[in-house]
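Bug report (template v2)

What were you trying to do?
Predict the complex of my protein with S-adenosylmethionine.

What happened?
Run completed; filing so the output is reviewed.

Input:
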Amino acid sequence: MSVALNVSRETMDRLETYAELLRKWNPKINLVSKSTIDDLWSRHIMDSAQIYSLAPHTVGHWADLGSGGGFPGLVIAIMAADQNSPQKTTLVESDARKCAFLRTVIRETEANAVVLNERIETLPSLAADILSARALGSLELLLSFADRHLAKTGTAIFPKGASWEKELADAQSKWKFDYQLVKSETESGPVIMKITGVSRV
Ligand SMILES: C[S@@+](CC[C@H](N)C(=O)[O-])C[C@H]1O[C@@H](n2cnc3c(N)ncnc32)[C@H](O)[C@@H]1O
C-alpha cells in the first residue's frame, strides 16, 4: 500500500538527495535496517510523509525525538519547505554519528531544521507545537517525553505497531490524555496516535 506524495519537482529532488545520502551512509552507521533499504520510499519516506499530512501546515515548532536516520523528522522538514511553511524543525538524537548524517542532509537539502545531539530526558523543554517519535519506545515512555517537551496546547503524533492496544491500556494507568486513532496507510504500523492534553494521573 502507498500514499500519494503530491509535492513539487524541487521537493522530490531534495527527497532523492536525502535517499541517496542515506544509501551511501547506511552501511557504515546503520541508519535503517538493511532489510528495508530497498524499500526506502514506502517503508520510511512515505511513512514519514503521512505523519506530516496529519498536522496543520501552520506549525511553528515541530520536534522529532530519537530521529535516527531522520524518520519522520527530516522528511517533515523537507515537506514543510514544500508548503512554504515557516516551520522550524528540531531533531533530537543521542548518537553523534547519526547527528553528523542528519546535519549533512540538512545542508544538502537546505531544510529548516536543527539537530540536537542530546538525550531527550535531560534536554530542557522544547515546548513544541507538534512532537513526533517513531520506533523510539512504549507509549508510556513517549508520554513522559511529551509531558516534558510538548507545549500545553500541542499535539503529539506517534505511529504505533501491533502492540498498540496493550501500550494504550498500560499508558492510561499512568497518564491522562485525549487521543485519536488514525489508520496507517503504509506498511510499517497499523495506527498513528494523535495525542493532546497529557498530564499525570
Ligand atoms: C530505533 S531508532 C528509530 C529512528 C527513527 N525514528 C526511525 O524511525 O527510523 C531510535 C533512535 O533513537 C535514538 N535514541 C534512543 N533513546 C534516545 C534518547 N533517550 N535520547 C535521544 N535519542 C535517543 C537512538 O540513538 C536511535 O537513533
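What did the reviewer find?
Strands lie at 61-65, 88-92, 113-116, 128-133, 150-160, 175-183, 191-200. The mean pLDDT is 94.
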